[in-house]
Specification:
It is built from 17 helices and twelve strands. It starts with 8 loop residues before the first strand and ends with a helix.
């Protein structure tokens, strides 16, 4: 019988993952919610993508609600509703932009102050879009002129034109609409990575004082997204600095930060996180879902797991597989976990290689047992925003892994696989071919990888640690203790005989 949920309510706040998408991070959230059934969860996802129609995972009994908030893109509606600038908005925008362009951590507190003031001007659930009248363009230009000479490391800032300032202001307004998303009334908000959900979590924390637990599960935030290639250097600079400033603000405001790895731990520490607030919790999967199995394919096979989108690492995999196919006749590549939204893009990339007959597309299987067992070698080429869950899954499945040395891959894989430099498809192809031609070595590596995963990356550890964190942060505060202060000293008395005996007093 399942235990009854406790009165501690947890808001699990994500950026479009669980329970609406079956991705690596969504699977981790699912195991966390299902493993901590003594807590009651209110699930909230904040996304700038298309609003999901229904949950992709069945919800357990300890989930009280599941809500998705989409940040719409309707400039015409925002323009129609634009009115006078709210009192204090100009000062808040100026603080935010000055802090956004600051390099020193103490000065970056200006950004947090500006963001806090702006969130106070945006009542949760308000449909009037108060950010539409925010004078961000002028504030950006003023802050840029103040910092135009040089940044702290001596690198000059790119030129910011009026058009660039307007573009950057529009993108910032859209991103900051997350502060208008209402957060449920709970005892603890657990935010799982990403700029968008963190903005919503910070606004909720400032409004209600609810403690904030932050899981740092994604890659470093300064990365450039594929859709931003067409933007000017100055606009890209604004977006990169904005993401860094939001992350630093989250590290300052969170009661605890739970990095996923030593890599994430070091990055958070270098961006303002206090060492006393960092509790490293490695990734973990359920060994029962990845029991390991003998190789079933007689032909040489390679597996890659990912969404198949432009930012998923697919291009590097296909480029390397072209060289693998030339060296190993009859080799087959299985692409598992390709989402419906990216099937067309994935098919176009495959067609360009001319190897369509040697490549198999698989949607994310309902049974994780089938994810990696179809292959002999796993090519772990993650996207820049992918946490290392798929790497741990491949290791737990007992498959030899060739991984790209990105983020926490080295510390996760250890000596149980092969690492190649990032961005080098030829080195990736050479390592894969070497394992395909050496069955004894790849099986030894697969066995060692599974043993390492069983020793360090099981989900029961994750559930146990997060259960303790939830208990510590979500528990009601202790009752106020009153101390009696005597203004007149108490008279001295002889110690009672019983106390003298217990304390073994000597005369």
């Amino acid at each position: 019988m399942n235990p009854t949920p406790s009165r501690e309510r947890i808001c699990l706040l994500t950026g479009g993952g669980y329970p609406y998408r079956r991705d690596a991070l969504g699977g981790w959230c699912r195991t966390l919610v299902e493993g901590l059934r003594r807590f009651r969860f209110e699930l909230l996802t904040v996304t700038d993508r298309e609003l999901p129609s229904a949950p992709a995972y069945p919800l357990p009994f300890n989930v009280g609600s599941a809500h998705a908030a989409a940040l719409g893109r309707d400039p015409a509606r925002a323009e129609r509703r634009r009115g006078s600038v709210p009192d204090g908005a100009a000062d808040a925008a100026a603080l935010l932009c000055r802090g956004l362009l600051a390099d020193e951590t103490p000065v970056t507190a200006l950004f947090a102050d500006g963001l806090r003031r702006l969130s106070g001007l945006c009542p949760p659930g308000d449909d009037t879009d108060p950010l539409a009248a925010l004078p961000l363009t002028d504030a950006l230009q003023d802050a840029w002129r103040q910092r135009q000479a040089h940044t702290a490391d001596g690198t000059p800032l790119p030129r910011l034109s009026v058009r660039d300032a307007r573009t950057a202001a529009t993108l910032l307004r859209h991103a900051m609409r997350a502060v208008t998303v209402p957060v449920p009334e709970v005892e603890l908000v657990h935010c799982v990575g990403g700029t968008t959900p963190l903005l919503a979590a910070l606004a909720g924390h400032w409004r209600t004082g609810t403690p904030l637990l932050l899981t740092e599960a994604r890659a470093a935030v300064p990365r450039q997204r594929p859709a931003e290639d067409r933007l000017s250097p100055s606009v890209r600079t604004v977006l990169r600095r904005f993401r860094i400033a939001v992350a630093r603000t989250g590290y300052t405001e969170a009661a605890l930060i739970a990095p996923l790895s030593t890599y994430h731990h070091g990055w958070a520490l270098g961006h303002g996180a206090a060492p006393t607030r960092l509790v490293q919790v490695p990734a973990g999967v359920d060994p029962r879902e990845y029991p390991g199995a003998a190789e079933v394919a007689e032909t040489p096979t390679v597996v890659w797991a990912g969404s198949g989108g432009p930012d998923s690492g697919l291009s590097l995999v296909l480029e390397a597989f072209t060289e693998v196919a030339a060296a190993v006749p009859g080799v087959v590549l299985h692409l598992v976990g390709v989402t419906a939204a990216h099937e067309e893009h994935c098919a176009e990339q495959i067609e360009r290689t001319g190897l369509g007959r040697a490549i198999r597309l698989h949607p994310l299987p309902a049974d994780p047992r089938d994810r990696y067992t179809v292959g002999q070698v796993v090519a772990h080429v993650p996207g820049p925003a992918d946490p290392p869950y798929r790497l741990v899954e491949a290791m737990m499945s007992g498959r030899a892994v060739v991984g790209v040395d990105i983020g926490p891959a080295a510390e996760t894989l250890g000596a149980t696989g092969i690492l190649v430099p990032a961005g080098d498809p030829s080195e990736l192809a050479i390592a894969i071919v070497g394992l395909l031609r050496a069955p004894g070595r790849r099986r030894a590596l697969g066995d060692a990888a599974r043993q390492r995963a069983l020793s360090h990356f099981t989900v029961d550890r994750v559930v146990r640690v997060y259960g303790a964190l939830y208990t510590d942060l979500a528990a009601p505060p202790p009752a106020t203790a009153f101390e009696l202060a005597l203004t007149v000293p108490a008279p001295r008395t002889t110690t009672p005989a019983t106390v003298r005996w217990l304390t073994r007093e000597t005369s």
